[in-house]
Write a structure and sequence with these properties.
about 230 residues, alpha/beta, Rossmann fold
């Protein structure tokens, strides 16, 4: 699958694009973790393409350092990933994701219906896309910092699904409870809880990967996208 270039309001940036065997098909913008558009994110795009979606993961760290591809296998890479996370401007990231979404809508392989999915930092961004962009639906896996963004929930008009890890080391219990209390009753928002799982339980090959929980979350996500994009 190719890397492409997207022209955003603040400049051009790269993205990984995966196209299904049969087109036109709905699109999905993939919001990266803190490790950049690495093999894990590319594999997510390929998985979505295999399920019948045009998937695109943009390099939202391009303003800091283009082309970052880290792993979660060394302390040095973790340290660099957290440096990037601290330097990252989430508001600018949403601008880039909206530009990616617009690019997908007009792509010859896409039907024009486009959703979003994100993991970790990307889970936060998927929530913000639901609140701030015209994405047709959004899915967030163990998003960080959502408890500080709940004032944006009233602007969410399209379906949103969140996967919440009960033992998430980056999202304390108090934050999870605040998120659940604020969002569980809102029309169009679906919350799935995984009480025994830690952060990144769906990252294949990661320290906290759990096959059963990951497969359950992924199945729910695909069903959600098929319901809202097909």
């Amino acid at each position: 699958m190719p890397d492409i270039s997207i022209n955003g309001p603040d400049g051009r940036f790269a993205a990984y694009l995966a196209v299904p065997a049969t087109t036109p098909a709905p699109g999905i913008v993939v919001a990266q973790e803190i490790f950049g558009v690495n093999q894990v994110m590319r594999d997510v795009c390929d998985w979505l393409a295999g399920a019948g979606f045009v998937a695109c993961c943009p390099d939202i760290f391009w303003r800091i350092e283009p082309g970052i591809q880290l792993t979660d296998k060394s302390e040095a890479e973790w340290a660099r990933a957290f440096e990037l996370f601290q330097a990252f401007d989430a508001d600018k990231g949403v601008v880039d994701l909206q530009a990616t979404l617009a690019n997908l809508r007009s792509h010859e392989a896409c039907t024009g219906k486009v959703g979003a999915i994100g993991y970790c930092l990307g889970g936060k961004l998927a929530y913000l896309m639901a609140a701030r962009t015209d994405a047709d639906c959004s899915v967030g896996y163990y998003g960080v910092g959502l408890d500080e963004l709940l004032d944006e929930a009233p602007t969410i008009a399209k379906p949103l699904m969140l996967h919440i890890a009960g033992k998430d080391r980056f999202v304390p219990k108090a934050a999870q409870e605040k998120i659940t209390a604020a969002l569980s009753g809102q029309t169009g928002i679906t919350l799935h809880h995984y009480p025994a799982q830690d952060h990144a339980f769906a990252r294949l090959g990661g320290e906290h990967y759990d096959k059963t929980a990951a497969e359950s979350a992924n199945r729910r996500s695909l069903d959600f996208f098929r319901e809202n994009l097909l």
